[in-house]
Structures are given as structure tokens and as C-alpha cells.
Amino acid sequence: MSKSTHFFGQPVYGQLINLLDKAKILQISRNLGGERYVKSFDGFTHLLTMLYAVIMRFDSLREIETSMTAEVRKLHHIGIETVPKRSTLSDANSRRTEKFFEEVYRDLYETNRHKLTSDSRRNGSEEWVKRLRIIDSTTISLFSDLIFKGAGRHPKTGKKKGGIKVHAIINANEGVPCDVKFTSAATNDTFMLVPSKFSEKEIAAMDRAYINYEKFETLTERNVVYVTKMKRNLKYETLIDFMEMTPEGKMEYREKVIVFRKGEINHVARMVTYVDVKKGKQPQLISLLTNDFDMRPETIVEIYRRRWQIELLFKQIKQNFPLRYFYGESANAIKIQIWVTLIANLLLSILQCSLERHWSFSGLATMVRIVLMYYLNMQTFFNKPDEDLRLMLLESSEPPPDEDAKLQ
Fold first, then answer.
1. Taking Cα atoms as reference points, which of 64, 189, 86, 137 lies closest to residue 338?
2. Do 263 and 236 contact (CB within 8 A), yes or no?
3. Dist CA 313 CA 254 (whole Å)
4. For residue range 88-97, what is the model confidence (pLDDT) as tens digits?
5. Three-class SS string for the chain?
6. How many Å apart are CA 179 and CA 157, to the nearest integer?
7. Strand 163-171 and strand 284-290: pairing?
8. What pLDDT, on the 0 to 100 scale, is given for residue 146?
9. pLDDT (tens digit, 9 = 90+) per residue, 214-271?
């Protein structure tokens, strides 16, 4: 059989990291003091090693070293000259600041965010999607409560584990974090809602953990719309109360204009209540809170439902990358691994947007992991992964050559 139609002179991993600017990354590391007393394991090599480990979903330093030793002949094609020892990688994760990886992520995001917004598969047809920013957090359990303070206790054992909380903001038409902060799991979420970071006419969707009257009033003054879920125990005064009914005489929406009073704050808001019907579950009333008085109630509901996008992002990251085990026990090492996971997620998201073939993120991440060190053209292979099989079947269906004709 002839050579693969997808053959390429660089491994898939080498093509995936072409978006990373080595000179800029090394300069970031120098600016943060990461290259002092470094002989060979510089910031760029550190990043590539951690990216390789995260994409391959390795759980230990031993797995990383063993796998890279097996691929030693291919490493120079991706910019790694020697296989890093476990001790070298462990020391680097403790010594090189996690701010370096944060800066790499932010630079990569700013450079390539236009590739995410240009993908029509990520964008809805609604006008407000481009203005929507979603805020939420997720907690990653840790082995100990000594580094990051956990929240609550295990329901069965009563033991308390540590946890690091990842706070994120995403633009709805991009699908990746545009801002990220780390805290202990016990930290309240509201600190992430900073009104000054929102521009006029933007929309902020969040869950009820972010309710803060003072910040909501500031958002209103800045002409920023917020949409959140109502808490049950909130005290307010009703100014206006009316319903929209269906032709059958059932409630479709109930709207109230209410005012929250706390100290000198008098925040006027709109409450939209609707019946949430889910398959296999009892219908329930959901009340949403917003400072917008112009949009239709169904638009407010749709905006809040779009908030689920960030929950799916957290699920995607936890399912496709190794965040159950960490390559170090220090706070710095844990944060480095999370930043590298976000970088890997961003690189694969950009790849997903560049392909004509529709891939689920999990399917693409699995395929990338399988062929990461294969010499395949990344674009042609992921657009037509079954092309070689088609040619093989075509060749096998052809009749064998006539031996007598050859002799003549």
C-alpha cells in the first residue's frame, strides 16, 4: 500500500503548538524571573512538557518521564532536546511561578479569540449573544486541607478535604474563559463580580451566589444588564405585579417590579417567574432577577438558560484533562497544572473551530491524544480521518494484476 495520504513531516503535537510563540513565551518567563540559574529546562520546555502530560492525561511524573523516553526520537521535532527527569519537572513546578503560565494563557487567548468568535457553530442567532458574559465557579477537590481551605465535609466519612475554587468569566460567543481567578473552596463567589470590568450594554449572567445589591446598583448605573436566579429568602417591596396568560388560561409569565432596601441602597429590579418543565420531572416555578425592563420575558429566560454554557465548560475540562491527580503538592504546582489545562483546552477549542468536520470536544480530545506523536497532517486528518481506510478498501476491491500479461 502507498504512504498515508495524511503523512506530514512534523508530529501532530508539533502542529498543535505552532500557535505558541517561543520567543514571546521565553520573554514572559524572563520578565518573571523564571530563567535565572536555568541551564536547559527553560520556560518553553517546561510548558511543552506539562502540555504533553495534560493532553495525554498522565497521572504521575513517572508516567510523563517514561512516555517521553519512549518518544525521544520525536521530541526534537517539537522543540524538546532532552527528556526531563522527574526531579527536574518537580523542582520546576515548585520554583517557576504560576504567573508565567497565567500570562501565557492570557496572551494566547487575546491573540486567537477572533478564531473562536468567527465560528458560527458557537454563536446563536440572537443579537444579545455577542454581548453576553457568564460568571461562575467550580471546585476541584484536593488531597489535603492544608493548602486550600475546603468547604463542608464528606457526607459519609466526615473528613474534610481541601479544595481550590476556579472562578471564571466567559464570553458566550467564545466558550473559553476570558478571566480566571483561583481561591480556596471556602471563598465566597461575589468577589468575582466586578462592575468596573463590564462595558456599557453588556449582559452578565450568573447564579444566585453572586447576588449583591450594591454591585447590582453599580451595574445599573453603568448601563450593564444582569440576569440571575432569585433567592427564596430575599426581602423586597413589590411595586407592580402582573401576569401573562396562555390562551388556555394558564400562567405563562409573572412579572414584578420590586425594590430591595439595605442601608442607603434602594435597588429597583424586575422579577420574572415562569414554569420550568423538564422531561421526567415535576414542573417548578423559577424566578429570575434582572435590571432590564425592556426585553421580553422569554428573552430573559433564554439568557439565563444560556448560563448553563459555563457549567458545560467546567464539565468538559474535568472530563477530558487530569485534575484528579496533581504533579506536585505545593499551591504553585497545583495552579500550574490548572493553567496548563486551560491552555490545552484553549488550543483544542481553536483546533475544533478551524475544522470543517464537526467534532465533539471529547471526541476530538480523545483522537488528538491517540495520534499526538504521529506524523500526520493535523488539518487533513481531522477533516477526513477515514480517507486512508477508504483508499485501502478501494485498492482491495481492484482485481489482482494478470501475471501472464506481465510475463509477455
1. 137
2. no
3. 31
4. 999 999 999 9
5. CCCCCCECCCCHHHHHHHHCCHHHHHHHHHHCCCCCCCCCCCHHHHHHHHHHHHHCCCCCHHHHHHHHHHCHHHHCCCCCCCCCCHHHHHHHHHHCCHHHHHHHHHHHHHHHHHHHHCCCCCCCCCHHHHHEEEEEEEEEECCCCCCCCCCCCCCCCCCCCCEEEEEEEEECCCCCEEEEEEEECCCCHHHHCCHHHCCCCCEEECCHHHCCHHHHHHHHHCCCEEEEECCCCCCCEEEEEEEEECCCCCEEEEEEEEEEEECCEEEEEEEEEEEECCCCCCCEEEEEEECCCCCCHHHHHHHHHHCHHHHHHHHHHHHHCCCCCCCCCCHHHHHHHHHHHHHHHHHHHHHHHHCCCCCCHHHHHHHHHHHCCCCECHHHHHHCCCHHHHHHHHHHHCCCCCHHHHHC
6. 35
7. unpaired
8. 44
9. 999 999 999 999 999 999 889 999 999 999 988 888 888 999 999 999 989 999 999 9
Which residue has cell 455577542? Answer: 130
